[in-house]
Inverse folding.
């Protein structure tokens, strides 16, 4: 938790970098959006084998303060569903997160940084059907916390705009070991998403 | 302010945050007590590779009376210190005799040494690597240290391809080791070839006493790990009368992330149930 708080702090300190660079030219009321819906598709950073269908709803009650709800349906390991007599019957996850953050404005874009938290449901099933052995299936159905940090970019000044976001999960935080590779479950689940946003209000 | 600059600073910031996020985890390098660690090299006659061997001795190592169990650790350069420290902690906690931990470093690419059959240019060296362990390393250990020379006194611990190698040893040279800690074993390799080898040699091995611990990460969802893991576990449990076997699926952790947690549980199982 300490590290998580440190990272959140780091995120906001670094945000100052952007604010310093952007605020002088940012007073463009045109860019301010109170409520947006931003559907997107994306990938995880595990070599792009997962397909993400996501949506971000962002509400800015004030110019800077941002609240967000992020939903994601992930079809995992989409490209390789049958390998060495091992069939993937299904493999998906559902994520629902809520977050709070800040938005900074540039001339034709805005940048939002969120601390997010929610739940993740993962389900997958594999079956070994090698004729030399009995058919055996193994399935996982798990609910876990899902928290992390998210960056959201909105580019464009019209009611329809380009939306990009990156989510870095911080759960599960590695508890043992000193090897950076131990965070593979996190590293492989960094989400990169791109889509079209709509200004509702 | 130009848009390009803003984007540049933004991207730079993202890069720093990502880097900081993941580097913050790599701070605590673990080492085993240096004065209880000995190192030497052995050149394999079977594949010409030179292996760096590290040995962790128990506290108050008795070189005259006692005989110690030995844990042979694959991917030793990564796992040695962690395993040695855990063996010390667990044996102390259970007031059990500690073991000698033997790290086998890399003499070849691990994908050569740990895979039983050749499916590419960098696979298929397990038979030679096993010959090295059997004919050189184990006799050398028995000569240098007070180690238990029976199969029940030997443990092999491997992760991923190392776990595959452990399963291969179980199947083809079951007389060599009595205890197997197989962590996220790559049993999918070459159409489950290690499982086929187990089936071929089952009749010869099935009456022998075995201790097997199998561990995996719950988040290993790449479509190849879970089903063979479960199948191998069920095969061993069903067909080996004198086996002591346990499995663990570590919650929310991936292939590498689950390794240390499963090492701890595997060693714990070994210390509690060893043959």
């Amino acid at each position: 938790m300490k590290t998580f708080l440190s990272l959140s702090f780091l995120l906001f300190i670094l945000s100052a970098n952007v604010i310093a660079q952007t605020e002088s030219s940012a007073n463009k009321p045109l860019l301010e959006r109170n409520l947006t819906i931003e559907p997107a598709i994306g990938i995880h950073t595990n070599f792009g084998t997962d397909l993400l269908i996501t949506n971000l709803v962002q509400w800015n009650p004030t110019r800077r303060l941002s609240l967000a709800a992020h939903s994601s349906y992930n079809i995992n390991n989409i490209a390789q569903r049958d390998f060495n007599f091992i069939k993937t019957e299904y493999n998906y996850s559902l994520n629902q997160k809520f977050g709070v953050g800040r938005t900074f404005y540039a001339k034709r874009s805005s940048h939002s940084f969120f601390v997010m938290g929610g739940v993740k449901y993962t389900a997958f099933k594999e079956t070994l059907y090698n004729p030399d052995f009995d058919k055996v299936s193994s399935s996982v159905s798990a609910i876990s916390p899902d928290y992390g940090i998210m960056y959201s970019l909105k580019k464009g000044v019209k009611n329809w705009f380009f939306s990009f976001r990156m989510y870095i999960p911080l759960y599960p935080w590695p508890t043992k070991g000193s090897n950076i590779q131990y965070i593979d479950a996190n590293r492989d689940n960094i989400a990169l998403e791109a889509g079209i946003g709509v200004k509702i209000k | 302010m130009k848009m390009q600059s803003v984007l540049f600073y933004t991207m730079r910031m993202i890069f720093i945050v990502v880097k900081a996020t993941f580097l913050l985890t790599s701070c605590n390098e673990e080492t085993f007590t240096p004065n209880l660690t000995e190192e030497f090299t052995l050149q394999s006659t079977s594949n010409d590779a030179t292996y760096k061997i590290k040995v962790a001795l128990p506290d108050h190592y008795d070189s005259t009376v006692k005989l110690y169990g030995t844990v042979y650790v694959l991917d030793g350069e990564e796992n040695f210190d962690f395993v040695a420290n855990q063996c010390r902690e667990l044996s102390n906690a259970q007031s059990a005799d500690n073991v000698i931990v033997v790290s086998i470093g890399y003499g070849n690419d691990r994908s050569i040494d740990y895979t039983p059959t050749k499916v590419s240019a960098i696979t298929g060296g397990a038979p030679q690597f096993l010959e090295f362990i059997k004919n050189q390393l184990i006799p050398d250990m028995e000569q240098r240290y007070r180690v238990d020379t029976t199969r029940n006194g030997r443990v092999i611990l491997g992760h991923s391809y190392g776990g595959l190698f452990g399963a291969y040893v179980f199947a083809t040279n079951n007389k060599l080791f009595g205890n197997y800690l197989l962590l996220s074993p790559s049993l999918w390799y070459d159409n489950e070839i290690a499982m086929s080898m187990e089936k071929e040699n089952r009749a010869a091995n099935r009456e022998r006493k075995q201790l097997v611990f199998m561990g995996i990460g719950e988040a290993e969802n790449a479509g190849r790990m879970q089903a063979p893991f479960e199948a191998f576990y069920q095969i061993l449990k069903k067909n080996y009368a004198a086996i002591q076997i346990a499995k663990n699926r570590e919650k929310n952790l991936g292939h590498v992330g689950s390794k240390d947690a499963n090492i701890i549980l595997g060693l714990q199982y070994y210390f509690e149930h060893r043959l």
Remarks:
- The longest helix of chain A spans residues 2-22.
